[in-house]
Design brief:
Layout: E1 2-5, E2 9-14, E3 24-29, H1 31-41, E4 46-49, E5 51-53, H2 56-67, E6 76-78, E7 84-89, E8 95-100, E9 123-127, H3 134-147, E10 152-156, H4 167-180, E11 183-187, H5 188-195, H6 201-211, E12 215-220, E13 223-229, E14 232-236, H7 249-263, H8 269-272, H9 277-295, H10 305-309
Parallel strand pairs: 1-4, 1-9, 2-7, 5-6, 9-10, 10-11, 11-12
Antiparallel strand pairs: 2-3, 7-8, 12-13, 13-14
Helix pairs in contact: 1-7, 3-4, 7-9
Length: 312
């Protein structure tokens, strides 16, 4: 089982309709939510650990996860309102987000809420903007540290600078999760936010390999993915696609990568430390194809197994 931890929210997109009124259309989303749905759609057993509101939006998020087959046995119910995100899409399909989450459900994860998933969980996926929230960020970090001793922890920072309250606390958590993780999936944009423009991506990735992770993957939009591990390093170019928008593309890549590794029976720390080049190229091909399919659709509509089986 893959246990996905973090926020779930509603993304609002402008529909372009109306003259004086601003018409918006809401979609269930949030990076961890998307990863959970994406892995479930690819046939994996998945559970979600996050706080879901009892309000209208929270009930919709809960129903969507259940309909996708994601277990909510570790999810928390809360009376706080659901977080909201307003999404603008540029002509090139790239997106920008504006969040409304002060005092929202995404903050309401406490140490007392930490799950004890037993032996069923092979991988814990953590990250996204939850890491920047005071109580929830510490809770998720402690879960990563606890689970990382025996299970695979996969970390996608998905940095949102506007949601980081205490930069020093966020950076300390970031480093703690890096040390606990077996897999780090990060974008060049995230590296820029965390380490500044022009940061040496390869030096950073290789530095993380010395701290604990066995596999580091750096995505860069339509540019080749860079992967670092026991196999050395490799660049892999994903398929060309007509981009509708890039919402959920990174989440789709992450979900597909974890799904592939688990389906191949390699979801252990020891197995990740011995991955060869042939395996990582097959994994990257699968993950890049999933991300490309998502980019060809409106919003975070991640592929199912049947979509992946069709000719490219």
């Amino acid at each position: 089982m893959i246990l996905v931890c973090g926020e779930a929210l509603i993304d609002f997109f402008s529909t372009g309709k109306g003259e004086r009124a601003l018409a918006m259309e809401g979609h269930v989303g949030g990076s961890p939510f998307n990863v959970a749905v994406g892995a479930a759609r690819l046939g994996r057993e998945v559970a979600f650990f996050g706080a879901l509101s009892d309000d209208f939006f929270g009930k919709r998020l809960r129903r969507a996860l259940e309909e996708e087959g994601v277990s909510l046995s570790f999810a928390k119910r809360t009376g706080r309102p659901s977080p909201l995100s307003f999404v603008s899409v540029g002509e090139d399909g790239l997106v920008a987000y504006s969040f409304r989450n002060e005092g929202a459900a995404d903050h309401d994860l406490l140490e007392t809420d930490l799950p004890d998933p037993g032996d069923a969980v092979s991988c814990v996926s953590v990250g996204s903007y939850t890491l920047g929230l005071d109580s929830a960020g510490e809770t998720v970090t402690r879960l990563a540290e606890r689970m990382g001793r025996e299970r695979v922890v996969s970390f996608d920072p998905n940095v949102r600078p506007g949601l980081i309250g205490d930069d020093a606390a966020w950076r300390a958590r970031f480093e703690r999760v890096i040390r606990a993780a077996s897999i780090v999936k990060i974008s060049t944009e995230d590296i820029g936010h965390a380490f500044g423009p022009g940061a040496d991506v390869e030096a950073i990735a290789r530095g993380w390999l010395r701290q604990g992770p066995a596999l580091v993957l750096v995505t860069d939009g339509p540019q080749p993915v860079r992967a670092f591990g026991a196999f050395g390093s490799v660049r892999f170019q994903g398929p060309a696609v007509t981009v509708v928008d890039t919402v959920g593309a990174g989440d789709s890549f992450h979900a597909a990568l974890l799904s592939f590794i688990e389906a191949e029976g390699r979801m252990t720390r020891g197995a990740l430390e011995t991955l060869d080049l042939a395996f990582i190229e097959r994994a990257l091909a699968f993950a890049c194809r999933a991300a490309a399919i998502t980019c060809s659709r409106r919003g975070a509509d991640l592929p199912r197994s049947g979509d992946m089986a069709r000719p490219a």
